[in-house]
Structure formats: C-alpha cells, structure tokens
Amino acid sequence: MMVAPAIGSAQTAEPQPSVPAPVPAAPSEAQPAPSAVPAAKPAPAKVTITPYGFILLQSFWNDGPFSAKDYPGQVLQNHDGGAFLMSARGSRFGFKVALPDDPFTGAQLSGVIEGDFKGGFANNTTTSANWYNSMFRLRLAYMTASWGDASNKFSFVIGQDWKIVAPLAPTSIAFGYDQMFTQAGNLNNRDQQIKAIYDMVSGGVGLNVSAAMLGPQDTAAITGTGTPVVGVTTADYGAGNRSRMPNFEGRLAVNMRDGKKKVAEVGVAGAVGWRRYDNVNTPNTTVDTTTKLGAVDAVFNFPFITLQGEGYVSDGMEDSYTSLLSSAVIVNSTGAGAAAHASSAVNIQSQGYWAQAILKPLDSVQIPVGYGMAQVRYHGAAAAVGTRFRNAQFHTGLLFNMTNPWKFGFEFTRTTSGYNNNQGPATANQYVLASKLDF
C-alpha cells in the first residue's frame, strides 16, 4: 500500500504509537453528562379565540310612513304619518378563532362565528314592549382552510358567509345590519356555502378568483285562481330546494396595490339557480325555471376621497338577495277549483345600481354622499296592483370618531318608492343619530 509523504518533510513519517482514548469523567450533580439533560419539548400549539363586536344605538326620526321604521327601505302609500324610534338591536358580537396548522393537509385553519339581535321577536309580536326584547340571530359561522402566503394563496371557506356577488358595503354608522341602498340597487345577503378563493399578487397588481356552491334562497309569488301551486311552505322546502339543485356563484376581480394597501379594484360576478313549482291537484306535474344574475363592482381609494359602487341585472334571481323584490318569479295558472293547475313560470327581469363618494377632509371625519336605484324592467304578467316596481334612495351624513373605538354619526336618507298604480310615487325622509362603540 502506497503512503503519501508528509507535506514539508523530506523523510517518511514513522508510525506513531496508539494512544488510548481518555476515560470519560463520571457525571456529577454540578455538571451532569450531556446524555442526562432532558431534551426540551416544543410548546403545544394553542387555539386562539378573539372576541369582537360593537354596541350600537340608533335614534330614528321619520317624516313619512316607512314599512320598517328602523330602515328607510320602502315608503308606503297609505299616508300613515311619521314615527320616532330608538333601537339597539343592531349591536353585534362574535369570535375569531385561529387554530394550529393542520399537520395532515398543511392548511392554515381559522374560523368566525357572529350574531346580532335582529332575529325577530318572541311569538312574532311587534308591540312596543317586545321591541326592546328582540331575539338573537346567527349572522356568520364559517371555517377557512388556506394554503400559501399573501402573494399566492388558495382558500376554502365552508359555512355561512357573505355571498360572492356584490361584495361591497356602503359606508355608514347607522346601517350595518341593513346596509344602505338595500332594496335600492345594493344586493347583499349571507348564505350557507362552500367557497373556493384564489388570491395572487405580483408587483402592484392583484388577482382574485372565487366560486361557490350555495343553498337556494327564494320566495314564491303565485297568481291566478285557486291554489294550484305549492310555493314556499317551510324554511327548508322552497321552490329552490324542490329543484334538487344548489345555486352557483362566481367572481373575477383585478386590483391595484401600493404595498399592502389596495388602491383600486374592479370585479365582475354572475349567479345561476333553479326553481321547481309543484301542482297541488296534479302532483306529478311541475313547472321549472332557471334564474340568472350578473353584477359589476368597483372601488377607488384616493388620499381624500373614496369612490365605490355596484350594478346588476337580474332574470328572476333578485329575491335570492336582500333587494327590491320580495319575489322574482310569477307562476301563472289556468282553471279554477279542482281543475286549477300551474301553466308557466315567468322570471321578473330587474336591474339596479348604487354609487357612493366618501369624503375624508380629516382623519377622524367622513362625509358619505350616495345614490341607489332598483327597478323592474319586465314582469311578463299582470302583477298585483300596488306592487313596488321602483325604489330610489339618496343618502348622506357626517361621521366622526370621538375616540379611536367610539364613532358617532348623523345620517339622512330620502327614499322614493314607485308602484304599478296611478297613485304616483311615495316619498319620505329619515334622520338618524347613531353611536357605535367597537371592541
């Protein structure tokens, strides 16, 4: 075997005698052997629960007959007069939950559950005494599983959350549970759903793609003689449930960013649903219809002003949202008595929009100014006399922060409701003084 010569030596190094390894010192209490030190255990992952919400008091003064005294959504034609009302029903609380990452899927897990006190009244009574004892209702209850980071993230949302279509909310202190311009161009609603969301940010440009499968929400309007059609009879068995199909929604949005701040965003969205109406006298005969909706939304943030708004067109689907129509499908019938049966389902076509400018002269002051309108374009049948076919709202206010969590505002709304009769539109004004404490 060849042995390489030692570097810097002219002679081959002689083999050195082996030296036995030193005997390790016996462990002592002052200095234990390394093997005797217990390994540090990782801290167990924790579930974090964060409460949030607000206390809201509103004082309403109406100079005309609104159908609901605590929201200027519809003006009645009965000239019943105005009203004064105070309410704390909009007060809200909820919990945000952050869970340890799922070790099997690698997902970041979180959840939200939220409610307020706009769930109606005991025994459905609305006397003055029961107004102050309103019932709790569920607003949100969903979990989120996400993968990725802020620049490239995919998420599943499962539970009750806001719908994808028309995601913007007008700025207001007085109107949070009933958003401003609801029934006047602002489609909004919460629904049980399974939603997939993809967010991507590259440089100063962002992309959002979302799609959802939702539970049907609808009502039934029946015209004609007799009782030939089964409409909405229970909360879990309406015309949409009878179709045996879920509703579907999707939205695509592009946004511009300045760092983490979203400067502008424009989105387009669509929805589709199915409904089935059963004949009572001829149970094997059904009338089916497909409903559709398209919408756009946009928001632009500037240093002293924010501009935002939405618009939509609907073919029989507006009543799946909180909107102008209580029913967006008319079911026609023929015959009378035992011979009565449904003959066709006609989708009511409607459209609407809202736009708002929020002036910000100071960090603690906001002045919203906006307008919203919704109207029926085509109903395909002789709707009942007195049906509301158009609704418009003008809204403005002065909002400011007393301190960081305490907000205070004075807001004004003028609503005009048009009907399919010869009595002309009905107009009324509402003034609101509101105090909101966030926590």
Automatic annotation (TrEMBL):
Residues 1-40 are annotated as: Disordered. It comes from the Bacteria. Residues 26-40 have a biased composition (Low complexity). This is Porin. It comes from Anaeromyxobacter diazotrophicus.
